[in-house]
């Protein structure tokens, strides 16, 4: 009896972990095929731990499996964050456009690569992988024939369209770097970026069209290049039928379907063999000074990271239609409109319009028409659409949707819940993705995770593979416990990170590497919850210190009030408290409440949800907030208004609607005179 019992018991003990291991191993391998070489790692959390503790083995396997190499790499990484030295996959040679196009043309030439959702609703155009490769090769040959060579930098000033994507990939094909400038930037802003990038070639279109309005892009380029002595040639494609004045430096390129110069070109273009660490692109972003920073991303590491995050954060599978509505002028458009989906052989939507053109149902009409499976948008648009009510969403069939993504700023709980409940009908996970131009791809997001793992509204939550976040206290020490806030750093390098700032490695060091030696400083603050989940609390320059208590502007903004559509909170100097809180508030449409009552209500909610010290000293009700065209609230401008420093409002040309500022200044005067 004893023996049998003992045998049975020990068998059970032995058998059950083996069975569990076997099962898990099988699931983990199906989830990530490379994991079979990771020595028994199982489950998503096991993979995450392995990717951080055995970072070299993880990235080596993934890079071998997911990229096509002309020559294999000899070293996985050679990084030293304290010296700002970041190198991945050295010794390897590859071509990014081959990875994004040719290898898919071999296996599925007629698969749709791009769905171009033009500004004119219902006139979408599809391009197969074969067509996109042909267009890319023609542009590549055209550039080569006009003297563009490996190592040059081509500035692209175009709306989101297939020819812009082909231009980016054509640069990659011939070994030139690209510098895409958002086509809403002013001539001055464009010129500054062309000069800093030392571009001799610009690609643009005659006119853009967005929200039914014509944008004179070629004219903007004409003005910009007047102060850019390096520019020798401007290629001009035709987005509309209106001819534009051409100068001696302009070359008519025209849309692929009626190509002129491009038609002369061969549809075969020999890809350049690029080193892993050659520059793929520059992308300018704002820093704390007035001068934009040209962040440098390189070939292999960036592409791999964009592809892996696209596949796992959004649970993208072959055959899915991926709908990222970001403009190609921003990093989100680069990584999740172009490189990530194309490296994965996916179908990606290029969205040229606005969320409210011709009406607030535009996104959801597009979801139904294009059968979008993953929708990736910005909280600012979600908040805007929320104001118009559920009927604009419910009009359309959204049953194709599987995952909803959010990026760019913290998504407040009300917007998150509306997105989840109304748009996703409570069946699609909402992934709040935290990352930056500097990180190249998503670093913190609720997915991937174990299936059905909880998602907390408004939290980015879990680090991606290879990402090790660290929170720092005010003395620069690592905070070890949970339920803590601090400066968000990344404790080890990952392949997608920016390598430097173009022409200014010193600034790269000072901004990202020196504040916390040995760590990459993100400039953001974060809270780590009791459970170990991360929540971004906002830029550290937006953190307010009220009477010695730190409070994130995002935290106050998130204190939802049913009547508020959106708000922007800033800190301003206060004689007694050091800093105090000033809130700009946009009300929902048709709200009929006395402002004084509403102020009381808001203060009540803030003191209830956070603390009394976080209550705004001033609340100004405004019609709209000053925003960049990518939807970011320009807090710098609001701060200047509050500080009555109107002479240094700075460059307002990047604002979506500069008139909003005048309204706010006027309202502020009235508020002070009350
Ligand atoms: P950009 O480089 O222009 O994409 O801006 C990156 C910055 O946007 C980050 O440093 C954050 O401050 C903010 N950001 C981006 N995504 C999120 C997010 N999911 N939650 C909170 N803030 C975000």
From TrEMBL:
Residues 48-100 form the Acetyl-coenzyme A synthetase N-terminal domain. One of its GO terms (cellular component) is mitochondrion. Pfam families: ACAS_N, AMP-binding, AMP-binding_C. Residues 1-15 form the signal peptide. InterPro entries: Ac_CoA_lig, ACAS_N, AMP-bd_C, AMP-bd_C_sf, AMP-binding_CS, AMP-dep_synth/lig_dom, ANL_N_sf. One of its GO terms (biological process) is acetyl-CoA biosynthetic process from acetate. Belongs to the ATP-dependent AMP-binding enzyme family. It catalyses: propanoate + ATP + CoA = propanoyl-CoA + AMP + diphosphate; acetate + ATP + CoA = acetyl-CoA + AMP + diphosphate. Keywords: ATP-binding, Ligase, Lipid metabolism, Nucleotide-binding, Signal. NCBIfam families: Ac_CoA_lig_AcsA, PRK00174.1. One of its GO terms (molecular function) is acetate-CoA ligase activity. Its EC number is 6.2.1.1. Residues 561-632 form the AMP-binding enzyme C-terminal domain. The gene is ACSS1. Residues 102-494 form the AMP-dependent synthetase/ligase domain. CDD domains: ACS (cd05966). PROSITE patterns: AMP_BINDING (PS00455). It comes from the Eukaryota. This is Acetyl-coenzyme A synthetase.
